[in-house]
Amino acid sequence: MAPRSQPTARQVRLGTELRRLREAAGLKAREVAGLLSSTSAQMSQVEAGLAGVSGERVRRLAAHYACADEAFIDALVAMASERAQGWWEEYRGVLPPVFLDVAETEHHGAYLREVVTSHVPGLLQTPDYARAVFGYMVPELPESELKPRIEHRIKRRSVLEREVPVPYETIIHEAALRILVSDRSTARAQLKEILRAIECEHATVRVIPFAGEGFAGAGIEMMYVGGALPRLDTVLCDAPHGTAFIDAESQLARFRALLHKVERAALPPVESRDFIHRLTKEL
Fold it and tell me: Do residues 205 and 197 touch, judged by C-beta distance below 8 A?
């Protein structure tokens, strides 16, 4: 089988976890290649996400690496055994791969916890709000590229509205709620959409008001995605060059601590809902 030319973030994560297990066992790729009747080059492809690996082979490798965490092994086997393609695949070749990776990561999340300080979270954006955000890019996107970006952003909300939704909690700074990315009509409709999501129990929303004390994290923005196990958590951070996928345990611990700090500054859900109601009336 030819190597994948563009593995997904989830395929890369599986390979990364297998490499971490091997390194923890103090073994080289060439030392375990024979176990799978493979070569060190092929093992490297598997660990880079460039080649697939069966669930059976994952178990054989885990046993060889003396991994005794059965729940973790089962989670890796589940990742290796995934065959169904999600709705985001229809955008392959249309949007940059990172858009698809974000949707896939959210789809498989055990829970989603987000912090935003400059824009309304993508999972709660209206089409008009999303159009204003994407339309601000330089150089400006033609309609042929702008339209699929908006469609993809709205479809991401399916994780909140499916039969078994992914638990989602977001903390939004008042600045993100007040910034007029377009006009007042768009802003009012966006606030009403957030309230609709709250009332439908699609999302838990907490607000950090300008008047709140003890918040010095204006630059903190993240999506914390819970994995099947804590060691399979992922943090998504937007950057000028694109979205970064962070999974090193030391970094995950850092973002967990930051998340706890931000939570302490946010209003409770009921007070946050009332706060957004007042902002809506002001527009």
Answer: yes
- Give exposure, 84-98, as e/b (b: 16+ Cβ within 10 Å): eeeebeebeeebeeb
Read off the pLDDT of residues 145-188 as tens digits, 9 standing for 90 and up: 999 999 999 999 999 999 999 999 999 999 999 999 999 999 99
218-274 pLDDT tens trace: 889 999 999 999 999 999 998 767 799 999 999 999 999 999 999 999 999 999 999
pTM tops 0.90, yes or no: yes
Angle at 165 between CA 162 and CA 167, to 5 degrees: 160
Number of neighbours of residue 153 by Cβ within 10 angstroms: 22
CA–CA distances in Å: residue 177 to residues 67, 193, 209, 233, 239: 47, 12, 10, 28, 21
Do residues 186 and 132 lie in contact, with contact meaning Cβ atoms separated by under 8 Å?
yes
DSSP result, 67-100? ---HHHHHHHHHHHH-----GGGGGBTTB-HHHH
